[in-house]
Structure formats: C-alpha cells, structure tokens
Amino acid sequence: MSDIPVTTGDAPLQIRFIVPPAFHEVPVFGTEEQVVEALWEMVCEVLASRSEEDRASWAMMLAELIPPMAEAGVIHAGMCLVDVDGRPSTASITASVCPLVGTDYEGAVDFLLTRLARSRPEAEVTAVELPAGRAVAVIDAVATAVDDGSTPLDGLAVPLVDGVLTTSVIQVHLPLPNESQLLSLELSTPCPEDWELYSELFAGVVRSIHLEFADLPTVSEPLYDTVDEEVAERVKAAFG
To answer: Contact at 8 Å (CB) between 211 and 8?
Structure first.
C-alpha cells in the first residue's frame, strides 16, 4: 500500500492507495546514484528470465521517463510484466499531484469535465463517485510513432500499425481536500488484449484511495478492497 505525504502550508495530507502486488515500484525520488541502483534492481527482478540486453533496454527506457515524471509531479510509479494466458503483458500505473488552478475546490470537478472534454474530444470524459470523493475519469488511446519499428516491448502482445504504437489509457483526477491540489492516477497499457483485466485492477486502485490530514489518527488497515463495477463496466464498454 502506498503511503505518500503531501505538504501544503500547515496542513500535511497523507495519500494512501493500494496497488496490486504485480506492479513493481519505479524509483522516482533520490539522488541519481540511488535512482539508478534501485531502477536496475527492479528491472533485474521483473525481467529475471530475460537476457541482459533486454534488461538494459528496459532500464534505459524507464530511465528516460524518470526526469519528466519528476517534473510532472509524479509521487508514485509502478510497472508490471506478467503472463496472461501464457503470453507476456505489461502495464504501468502512475500517481501525481499538481496545483489545482483555474477553479475553486467546490467547482473543480465540473470545471475539469468541461476542460478535458474540450481538449480531448476523442476521449470519454465522465464524473465518477469514489469513496474518497467525486472525481473525473478519462478513457483514451494515445498513438506514438516508433521511428525504427522496434521497442523494448518487442515480444509482448504489442501490435504496431504502420510504425505507430497505440497505448490505452485511463485516468482519474481527484481534487484534494486541501482545496489547492489535484491527485491524478493513470493506468496505461500497450497490450489491447488485456485492457479489460487492467481496467478492473485500476478500478480497485482508485476505489482504495484514502486521504487524511496528518493530525488525524492513522488508519493502518485498507479501507476499500472492492472493484468499482460502474467504472469497470464503462471501461469495458469503451474498449471491449
């Protein structure tokens, strides 16, 4: 279970959510040496059965993502590489915190609904009710050109169409009760055959979000461990 302190002014806020154990944490914080060491250990664990070359390719790919993640306010990142029906599959989960700008807390969800629907017309943008509060969910597909036609994902269930990699994405944006920040959780996978599985796992992650101010009693047990069926069904309907 991730337990992340976020400090704003005199009101430190703890953010908790449960990530499935198949997702290995990608190091985001620490010195360059600490990050490199932790990243290599994680890659060796996840890709224990793969070649040294494969592990190096994955490590390099992930290392390139860490600086932009830090700049984007990412507070947690995790990736998985699992076997689904006898074939390898991968997905990632990130959580980030950024300032809540352009609106006040009370109108934040409606503001985000309007802004995201306009800026991402191809995406499905809806309001969802979570145990931690009202939030905005975004379901989308992101296309990325792959110049040389190969990626560290070779060998996975990752189809390239005319040199383009399509990644399925679901995001949940939750205004935080400190009224000045926005928590965003995202799951992405380039493996379309496994979208239903990952979307259901992600529904469980966002259902498990628990927020508390530091001066309140600490909750040691997970509060929510059920899948948000409404979100999961919406994702299934969008991606099959």
So the answer is: no
Contacts of 139 (CB under 8 A, 6+ apart): 123, 124, 169, 170, 234, 235, 238, 239
Residue 226 to residue 208: CA distance in whole angstroms: 8
Residue 125 and residue 153: Cα distance in Å, rounded? 29
Q: For 175-192, write each residue's pLDDT tens digit.
A: 999 888 999 999 999 888
Cα distances (Å, whole numbers) of residue 163 to 26, 60, 146, 200: 27, 21, 5, 29
Q: If you search the block for the tokens 């507070």, which residue do you land on?
A: 75
Question: Smallest Cα–Cα separation from 135: which of 100, 169, 102, 91?
Answer: 100
Q: What is the mean pLDDT of the chain?
A: 80
d(CA 18, CA 64): 26
User: Under CATH, domain 2-239 is a member of which superfamily?
Assistant: Mog1/PsbP, alpha/beta/alpha sandwich (3.40.1000.10)
Q: Is residue 112 very low, low, confident or very high in pLDDT (cuts 50, 70, 90)?
A: very high
